[in-house]
Amino acid sequence: MGLGAEDLVRIRVVKLQPEAQLPRYAHTGEFGDLAADLYAVAGTTIEAGATVAVATGVAMEFPSTHGALVEDRSGLAVRGVTTLAGVIDPGYRGEIKVVMTNLSMAAVEIKAGDRIAQLRIVRRIEAAFEEVSELVEAPRGVKGFGSTGS
């Protein structure tokens, strides 16, 4: 049971620099990846505790029905490098830059062509927010972070 043609979302991509790489899935097919890899277009060093915007050298045209989330790559996350500010709205047409923070105690080198993040395509849903005086009770109630004991 694989993906059908109706599941395929076409996203137009412009290379802003010749050496830029289009996002791509490392594994495709029935049990393929959830997100496509994003690549650094140039090298940089992220100092310990620093936050930088790493350029990908690509701009994208999403259909009005979809956008994307930029998420961590586990190989970098285990080294203390995480992504921030990762929402790409359908109307954005500028260069995709990945905001990265180095939480480790040592500088981390990013080389041109390195996979730096994952791009997860999401369907856009617009909600109508309605003010009410109270909410219907649910089993979890007001319990928040750590409410399951982990």
Keywords:
150 residues; Deoxyuridine 5'-Triphosphate Nucleotidohydrolase, Chain A; 1 helix; four-stranded antiparallel β-sheet; mainly beta; single chain; globular
Number of strands: 10
- Quaternary structure annotation: single chain
Strand content: 35-45%
CATH class identity: Mainly Beta
Q: Into how many domains do the coordinates divide?
A: 1
Assign the CATH topology: Deoxyuridine 5'-Triphosphate Nucleotidohydrolase, Chain A
Q: Helical content, roughly?
A: under 10%
CATH superfamily: Deoxyuridine triphosphatase (dUTPase)
Question: How far apart are the first and last residues' alpha carbons, in Å?
Answer: 35 Å
Strand line-up across the major sheet: 1-4-8-6
Kindly provide the radius of gyration, computed on alpha-carbon positions and rounded to a whole number of angstroms. 19 Å
Structural class: mainly beta
Largest sheet: 4 strands, antiparallel
- Shape field: globular
CATH architecture: Distorted Sandwich
Mean pLDDT: 93
* Count of discrete alpha- or pi-helical segments spanning 4 or more residues: 1
Taking pLDDT < 50 over at least 5 consecutive residues as the criterion, the unreliable ranges are none
The secondary-structure element order is EEEEEHEEEEE
Write the topology of this structure.
Layout (H helix, E strand, L loop, with lengths): L11 E4 L20 E4 L4 E3 L4 E11 L4 E6 L2 H4 L3 E4 L2 E2 L6 E8 L5 E3 L4 E9 L27
Antiparallel strand pairs: 1-4, 2-10, 3-9, 4-8, 5-7, 5-10, 6-8
Description:
By secondary structure, the protein is mainly beta. The chain has one helix at 74-77; strands at residues 12-15, 36-39, 44-46, 51-61, 66-71, 81-84, 87-88, 95-102, 108-110, 115-123. The chain has a single domain (9-123), classed as Distorted Sandwich (Deoxyuridine 5'-Triphosphate Nucleotidohydrolase, Chain A), CATH 2.70.40.10. The longest helix is centred in the middle third of the chain and has 4 residues, at 74-77. Helices cover 3% and strands 36% of the residues. The chain has 1 helix and 10 strands. It is globular and about 55 Å long. It starts with 11 loop residues before the first strand and ends in a 27-residue tail after the last strand. The strands form 3 sheets. It has a 4-stranded antiparallel beta sheet with strand order 1-4-8-6, with no helix packed on it.
